[in-house]
Amino acid sequence: MDQRQALPNRGYHSEIQAYLFLSPTLILIGLFLISPMITGLVMSFYKTSLSGTTQFVGLKNYWLLLTEARFLNNIRLSMLYVLGNLAISLPIAYSMALLITSKLKAASLLRGVFLLPWIVAPIVSTVLFRSLVDPAFGPLSWMIEKIIGHSIVLLAHPTWSMAVIIIHSVWRSLPFMTLFLAAGIAMIPKELYEAAMVDGAGKWKQFFTLTFPLTKIHLVIVLLTITLWTLQDAETVYAMTEGGPGYSTEVMAVRLFKESFLNFDLNSGAALGVLLLLVGLIFMILYVQFAAKREER
């Protein structure tokens, strides 16, 4: 056989072999990741009564949610929760990443210290934060009392309770963001910084012309990961405030938990899950477009 004819066949067989090696992973992804999403989507089109009768209702579950003032408030609070977390944690994470990648002697020690919030279980960190804002002996409540001149029960106040859950989320997000951004910064060749210093670039100019552009892909991954984690965060918010006072901290994930496991309305919970997934997809598209636009410049 001509060697030129054998080469395409060899490539075809290699491709088939690659798919065969990948097939166990693809089957597992289909079973454990895609199939629950499909069953959840199907469930959202039905309504199950207390007697156990299931009826197809089409988009009624979505219509009821999207025309409800409480659900629109859930969306607004979720956006506030995500954007508040990112706005505070991102500059702090960049600062901490620059610190632990510097030549400071304490940099190795700081890496371990910065990891502490990550190794604490979410419920444990929630209990710790509740003790910080306890109106009787919490140091944060005491400091605020000294500043504004009167005591305040932070978790019973609509604005302060949202601020507390955002700060708690910032505290939990910082280790991952810092380590991922530090990994990106460590990959930048030192020669670029030396050349920038020779050209007279200061620290701020080095950051905006070298560090920030060259860690763009790390930034996008961090933003997407933290956004999805924060959007789906029901356990810490519910453990901290149970969505209250009133509905002032009831983000979409907490509403989903309440509908599914407290009210036992799994159909509305499934519809909420699909809408939460769509919000996550919108964020993902925005981040990918942001990365693509900066790539074109």
Overview of this protein structure:
It is built from 14 helices and 2 strands. With 297 residues, it is mostly helical. The protein has a two-stranded antiparallel sheet with strand order 1-2. Helix 13 packs antiparallel against helix 14 (266-296).
Distance between the termini: 50 Å
Contiguous low-pLDDT stretches (5 residues minimum) are: none
Major beta sheet, specifics? 2 strands, antiparallel
Average pLDDT score: 86
Helix share bin: over 70%
DSSP strand content: under 5%
Q: Structural class, please? A: mainly alpha
- Give the number of helices: 14
Strand order of the largest sheet: 1-2
Q: What is the total tally of β strands? A: 2
Radius of gyration: 25 Å
Overall shape: it is flat
Summarize the structure.
With 297 residues, the protein is mainly alpha-helical. The protein has 14 helices and two strands, in the order H-E-E-H-H-H-H-H-H-H-H-H-H-H-H-H.
Strand and helix layout:
Blueprint: H1 3-43, E1 46-48, E2 54-56, H2 60-66, H3 69-100, H4 107-114, H5 116-119, H6 122-132, H7 139-148, H8 158-186, H9 190-198, H10 203-214, H11 216-231, H12 235-241, H13 252-262, H14 266-296
Antiparallel strand pairs: 1-2
Helix pairs in contact: 1-14, 3-8, 3-11, 6-12, 8-11, 11-14, 13-14
Keywords for this entry:
297 residues; mainly alpha; two-stranded antiparallel sheet; 77% helix
